[in-house]
Structures are given as structure tokens and as C-alpha cells.
Amino acid sequence: MALEELQREVDKWTAQFTPQYWQAHEILARLMEETGELAREVNHLYGPKKKKDSEDKRDLGDEMADVIFTLMCLANSKNINLDDAWKKMMEKCCKRDSERYKKREDLV
Amino acid sequence: MALEELQREVDKWTAQFTPQYWQAHEILARLMEETGELAREVNHLYGPKKKKDSEDKRDLGDEMADVIFTLMCLANSKNINLDDAWKKMMEKCCKRDSERYKKREDLV
Amino acid sequence: MALEELQREVDKWTAQFTPQYWQAHEILARLMEETGELAREVNHLYGPKKKKDSEDKRDLGDEMADVIFTLMCLANSKNINLDDAWKKMMEKCCKRDSERYKKREDLV
Amino acid sequence: MALEELQREVDKWTAQFTPQYWQAHEILARLMEETGELAREVNHLYGPKKKKDSEDKRDLGDEMADVIFTLMCLANSKNINLDDAWKKMMEKCCKRDSERYKKREDLV
């Protein structure tokens, strides 16, 4: 119920606005904007445009939270239970990737 | 602790691989790929390329779970606590947006 | 030679910097940032956050030029001739899509 | 007139379909999809998932051409002249970045 809890939190907060949620394509455009800001931050922190270490981790987390919030809006607007989707993915993921990448030698 | 729980789940699963996490820019490229697949799904469901209703919601959730998984990898690789980031965002969000969009008239 | 001309223009301009081009993943992160700004502009112009008509088209073009510039940097850094890629795509495109979307009735 | 030429080529090709162009948000979703495929290719070529050298450059160019095509569709659908936008950007760019990055020492 981890993600469902956050989805309810988002739903409660957005309930004061009308429309409560934008159209799917509009939320998607917002997602592009938010992932773009995350990308800029990654370039600042680990790429060609350096920033100070002190503000690093906090800012990256901020951008990631914005991305997750936007995803929650899309999920809520379409009545998608992200915990169900998460469980399904973790099961699929376990099968798909287990042969695909190099494993630690001490585990082989 | 909602997101931290999932972050631990991801960390446990990825612990079998080496390297456990890719470089930040590589994870970011993967995020672009996953959000691209989500976008394709949105265009299928609500845009010019229609698909059948039966498979709709499930697929969209699948793509969203992949995006969240990728974000968790980035967060874990940089020791970011997403619950902290989430709380901080919700507090900021409450202040910033409260004056910005149209509110429901029955709440005004 | 349409795109090659612009690629040379970019190469001439960037030649004054060192390194002349960032790493591929870094340019890709910049591309995410630039497409994110384009997405924000689309949401402003045609989505839930309206702006004035007078500044619309110009701004959208600005963001698109930034995206193209970033692509040119990636192409130049990897010695890719975009005119060749363009021609190849137009030929493939002509075959693939000709059966896929609804055609104008007066052309059928 | 470099980009305008390609825009006309796209317009001629798409003129056979109805609607000739999708809605802006739909094209934007397609752009996310195409940049996502470009990102996957970059990860294949220069990231954790290696492919053979022989197919590299060709594939990257293919994905870039798809991104440019999608941009041209958006530009055409909104009557944007990309050459004008390009010129404007190059002028702005020359001023903005000239102080910002490290220059080659033999040019200083």
C-alpha cells in the first residue's frame, strides 16, 4: 500500500481545484518538463556544469519528488493503482533481468 | 516511509548485480526511454492511435511502474531518501499552488 | 545538404570551446532539459496554463531551435551526417506509414 | 532556408493524410517517444548495454532523424518558420555562452 497512500495524499490535495486533474496529454507534457528539470540537475551535479556539494543531494531529491507527484496525478486521473502495477513489475523484472546483467561473482 | 520501503525493495533486488547501479547519466537515459514508452501508451490510449479498452489501464500502469523503478535506482545510487523529498515537496506545493489555479466554487 | 549546413555552423561556433562537445550522455541530458522547456511552452500555449497570443509562436520556435541545436551537437560529436539520416528516414517513412493512417478522401 | 526546405518536404508528405498533423500535445508525446528511443540508443552505444560498432552510428542518426521529423510536424502544424527561430537562437547563443564555458587557450 506504499504508493496508494501517496496517491490518496495527492488526491486529497488536488480535490480543492477544478478540474482536479488535467488531461492525460497535459500531465504528460508536465512530466517532460519535470524530467527535464531533473536532467538539468544531473548535468549540474555530475556533468559539465558543476555546482557546490552542499546543495546537491537535496536538489536532486526535490526534482525526483516533482516527477513522482506528476506520475501520481496521471495515475489518479485514470484510476490506476500503482501498488498493483509495482507488484506486477517487480515479478516480471525478477524474471527478465536475472539472466541479463553481470552478477556479483561472490553470488554466482 | 512509503517510498523508502520501495527503495529498499529495489536495493535488495539490484544487490545481485555488479555494478549495482549505473552512472547517474545512464539511469537518466533509461528514464527518458521509460517516459518515452509511457508517452507512446498515452498516445495509444487517448490520442490518435487507438487501442482496445480492455488492455488500456493495465499497460499505462506498467509503464508508470517502470518509470518509478528507474527513479528509485537513481535515488538509491545517490543515497537520496525520497520520503524526505516527498514531504518537503508537499509542504512547498501547498503554499505555491494554493493561489495559482481555479478552485472549486463550493469550496471558495 | 540542408542539415549539414547547420551542423557546420554549430561546429564553427563550438570550436572556440574546450571540450568542443560534451559527452553523449551529457548532451542527452541537455536534450531532456530542452524538450522539457518545449513541453512547458506547449502547455502554456495549448494546455491548462494560457498565455497571451502575441508571444506564442515566437517562443515555441525558440524552444524548438534549442532542441535542434542540441541534436546538432550530438550529431557533430559523433560525426553523424544528418542529411544522410534524413534521406534514409524519408524513404523508410514513405513505405511504413503509407498504409497506416487515414488518407484524405479526395486523394483515395 | 535550410530547415524550411525540410519543413516543405514534410508538409508535402503529410498532405496525403487527414488530419495532416496531430494536436500539439499528441506530437509532443510522440517527441517523448522518439527522444526515448534516441536515449536507448545512446545507452546501447556509450553506456552499460554495449552493441557492435558496425551498426552504431547509423542507428543513432536514424533516431535523430525521427526526432527532427517530429519537430518539423509540430512546427508545420503551428506555422513556425524554423529558419527564423534558428537565426534568432544563434544570435542569442553567441552572446549568452561566450563568457560561460572554458575557451581553448590558443584562442584566448
Describe what this molecule looks like in 3D.
The structure is a homotetramer of 108-residue chains. Chain A has 108 residues and is mainly α. Chain A has a single domain (3-98), classed as MazG-like (Helix Hairpins), CATH 1.10.287. Chain A contains 4 helices and no strands. Chain A has helices spanning 2-14, 24-46, 56-77, 82-97. The longest helix of chain A has 23 residues, at 24-46. The first copy, chain A, starts with a helix and ends in an 11-residue tail after the last helix. Chain B binds chain C through residues 23, 25-26, 28-29, 32, 48, 101, and chain C through 23, 25-26, 28-29, 32, 48, 101.
Can you lay out the helices and strands and say which pair or pack?
4 copies of one chain form a homotetramer.
Chain A: H1 2-14, H2 24-46, H3 56-77, H4 82-97
Helix pairs in contact in A: 1-3, 2-3
What's a quick, concise take on this entry?
The structure is a homotetramer of 108-residue chains. With 108 residues, chain A is mostly helical. Chain A is built from 4 helices and no strands.
Q: How far do the termini of chain A sit from each other?
A: 33 Å
Global mean pLDDT of chain A: 87
Name the quaternary structure: homotetramer
Chains forming the largest contact = A-B, 57 and 57 residues
